[in-house]
Write a structure and sequence with these properties.
Blueprint: H1 2-33, H2 36-56, H3 60-71, H4 77-102, H5 104-114, H6 116-120, H7 125-144, H8 149-171, H9 177-202, H10 212-224, H11 236-244, E1 253-257, H12 265-275, E2 280-285, H13 290-298, E3 303-306, H14 311-322
Parallel strand pairs: 1-2, 2-3
């Protein structure tokens, strides 16, 4: 909680600082440095980039917050989470960029009389869309890691401050408007690069493909197909009663959590091995410590799994008992 409070407090300071810089730009610098038409163009290009990014990112920033806990596994590089949140938005970016290019004739017809300057800078919409998509994703990734200050500093302060500097250079004729637009695009891209470097420094970057979770879904589909019949018990006592019943199911394998209400998984393991030694029992726990592992294996466990479960290993073990090597 202390980390969350500190991050929130710093984020609030950054937000207010960004408001001050933004106010300075809008109220004083833009009107002082550029004619109205060029101000309108810059705002239109950047805001259109934000608008297109909303669709092009195809929900990935929201998915980061929602699904990261499901992927989280530092030993397995978060099951390829960075790969998925990097590659998936490219589909949306290519799709919406293609649509945007196809409708360019309509775009030209609409703006050629009212605002021909927009047509001259048409191609800036696509890089700004790309930049905003990945700014949003990198910010949400940092938020999922409870590191929100630096990404907000980049968006709210850095980008506005560098815009101020470029406007001043433009005012003193060091930059033409063409150069100003290019410099703004590069500046926004540099903000994205800083976010990426920040992630690399504190969390690491691994873009290797990992289809484990996709294979997990395949494994669940195989189970539903009926190659194994599953029986469920919601406590150790219920599992033993099922095994001791007059018509017990043909059980070859038990998969039990260590921490359960009432009887623990280790107690269940001991009793099953005493009464039904032919049944294989594997344990699963959210805590992969040596003590649990030693207790489980010395009590006769076939295997010890930690959460999130490696379904490839579990499937291989089940195939060993069934003799099925699909």
């Amino acid at each position: 909680m202390g980390v969350v409070i500190r991050q929130s407090f710093k984020s609030l300071i950054v937000q207010y600082l960004g408001i001050v810089v933004g106010y300075f730009n809008i109220v004083w610098l833009f009107p002082k440095c550029l004619p109205l038409e060029e101000i309108g163009l810059i705002r239109f290009v950047t805001e259109m980039g934000i608008f297109l990014a909303f669709f092009a990112q195809i929900g990935v920033p929201n998915a980061v917050n929602r699904f990261y806990p499901y992927f989280r596994n530092k030993e397995k590089n978060d099951n390829g989470f960075q790969f998925w949140i990097t590659v998936t938005p490219l589909i949306g970016i290519f799709l919406f960029s293609g649509i945007f290019i196809l409708i360019k004739p309509l775009f030209v017809d609409y703006y050629q009389n009212n605002s021909p300057l927009v047509i001259d800078y048409f191609w800036y919409f696509i890089p700004f869309t790309f930049i905003y998509v990945y700014l949003n994703i990198t910010e949400q990734y940092c938020t999922s890691q409870m590191r929100i200050v630096v990404p907000k500093l980049i968006r709210d302060v850095y980008l506005r401050a560098i815009t101020s500097a470029l406007l001043i250079l433009s005012y003193y004729k060091y930059l033409s408007f063409d150069q100003l637009m290019l410099a703004l695009c590069i500046a926004y891209f540099s903000g994205l690069v800083i976010n990426i470097l920040y992630i690399y420094k504190f969390f690491g970057i691994n873009l290797s493909y990992d289809g484990t979770l996709l294979r997990d879904k395949k494994f669940r589909k195989e189970i539903r197909s009926g190659f194994l019949e599953l029986e469920f018990a919601f406590s150790g006592e219920e599992a033993l009663n099922l095994l001791r019943s007059q018509k017990p199911p043909e059980v070859i394998y038990i998969f039990s959590d260590i921490n359960m209400p009432g009887m623990t998984g280790l107690e269940l393991l001991t009793m099953v091995k005493n009464e039904f030694p032919e049944i294989h029992v594997s344990m699963v726990s959210a805590y992969g410590n040596d003590e649990y592992y030693s207790l489980a294996m010395s009590s006769g466990a076939k295997e010890f799994f930690t959460k999130p479960i490696d379904f490839d290993s579990l499937r291989a073990e089940l195939m060993e008992f069934t003799g099925d090597r699909k």
